[in-house]
Amino acid sequence: MTYDRLVCANCAAPVSEGRCPVCRANRERLQQEGFLGGLNGLNPMALIALLAVLIAAVALLAHQTA
């Protein structure tokens, strides 16, 4: 999810538009923090694929140790 879909509780407008001081402050904060860390550029299918690879790696390690 990106911040352009967030709605401000103060003015009920999209945060990405920056209509009020609260929107502008939150938009700046989210841009500086890189909203959701480094995962903000990945789509849901890429996250599912990454999770599947991680589960497969853990299963392989568990099988080798047993």
Automatic annotation (TrEMBL):
Q: Is Membrane a UniProt keyword of this protein?
A: yes
Which top-rank group of organisms is this from?
Answer: Bacteria
Q: Which UniProt keywords apply?
A: Membrane, Transmembrane, Transmembrane helix
Tell me yes or no: is Transmembrane among this UniProt entry's keywords. Answer: yes
**What residue intervals traverse the membrane?**
45-62
What's the protein name?
Answer: DUF2116 family Zn-ribbon domain-containing protein
Q: Which organism is it from?
A: Streptomyces tricolor
